[in-house]
Structures are given as structure tokens and as C-alpha cells.
């Protein structure tokens, strides 16, 4: 691991889109980045991609909870969500974190910036 990146191997059983069920998927982890959010919370995001950049995940660590979210197609930026209750939408050095996707309560969304 010369570049300080971590390698994560996932069995194909988690990735239905690939053809051969006996292969492993190798994901490369980028260095973690810490974000400070307007609601005062801190979020650490670590991004994982396969070498072809066709699979992308983010691991969000917030206080005592860690969540892995897959990337979802977006019109702008990079969007990661479990489609149930959490969304991380990255645009440049800023991101929005939505704690409750099915609520109209704007207080469930906070803007975050990379910690200086």
C-alpha cells in the first residue's frame, strides 16, 4: 500500500450487476475526509471505488454510528444514499447530509464543509 490507500475486497454476492459470481470485487479506499456541518456535527467520509470506477461507496462515520452508502445517479455532484433514511450529496468541497429522506422537515438536512 504505497499510496496510503486501503484495499477492500467484497464478494460478488453483494454486487448483482457483475456476471461471474465467483469473482471478488476490489475496492480502493481514498483517504478519509472530515466535514464540519452547520448543525455542529462532525462527519468523516471515506470513499471507495473499484479500479474501473463503476462501483462507488462512501462510509460515513457520525459520532458512534458508521454507515456504508452506495452511489446513486445524480444530475450534479456525487449522491450516496440507502434510499431509506440517509443521503450524502457531495458537490465540490461541500456536502449535504439528509437524516430523513421521507420527511419534509428541512431541519433534517444540514450542509457540511471539509474541515480546514
List the SSEs and their pairings.
Blueprint: E1 6-11, E2 24-29, E3 33-37, E4 42-50, E5 56-62, E6 65-72, E7 78-81, E8 87-91, E9 94-98, E10 109-114
Antiparallel strand pairs: 1-2, 2-4, 3-4, 3-10, 4-5, 5-6, 6-7, 7-8, 8-9, 9-10
What does this protein look like?
The chain has an eight-stranded antiparallel β-barrel with strand order 3-4-5-6-7-8-9-10. The relative contact order is 0.16. Strand 5 and strand 6 (65-72) form a beta hairpin. It has one domain: Beta Barrel (Lipocalin). The chain contains no helices and ten strands. By secondary structure, it is mostly beta strands.
Mean pLDDT: 79
Strand content: over 45%
| Tally of structural domains | 1
Rg: 15 Å
CATH architecture title: Beta Barrel
The CATH C-level name is: Mainly Beta
**SS content category:** mainly beta
Strand arrangement across the biggest beta sheet: 3-4-5-6-7-8-9-10
Record keyword descriptors for this entry.
mainly beta; 53% strand; eight-stranded antiparallel barrel; 0% helix; 116 residues; single chain; lipoprotein; Lipocalin
Briefly summarize what is shown.
This protein has strands at 6-11, 24-29, 33-37, 42-50, 56-62, 65-72, 78-81, 87-91, 94-98, 109-114.
Amino acid at each position: 500500500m504505497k499510496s496510503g490507500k486501503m484495499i477492500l475486497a467484497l464478494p460478488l454476492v453483494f454486487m448483482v450487476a457483475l456476471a461471474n459470481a465467483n469473482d471478488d470485487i476490489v475496492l480502493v479506499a481514498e483517504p478519509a475526509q472530515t466535514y464540519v456541518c452547520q448543525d455542529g456535527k462532525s462527519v468523516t467520509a471515506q470513499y471507495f471505488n473499484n479500479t474501473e470506477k463503476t462501483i462507488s461507496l462512501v462510509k460515513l462515520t457520525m459520532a458512534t454510528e458508521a454507515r456504508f452508502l452506495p452511489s446513486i445517479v445524480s444530475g450534479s455532484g456525487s449522491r450516496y444514499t440507502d434510499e431509506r433514511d440517509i443521503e450524502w450529496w457531495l458537490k465540490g468541497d461541500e456536502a449535504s447530509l439528509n437524516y430523513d429522506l421521507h420527511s419534509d422537515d428541512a431541519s433534517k438536512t444540514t450542509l457540511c464543509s471539509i474541515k480546514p
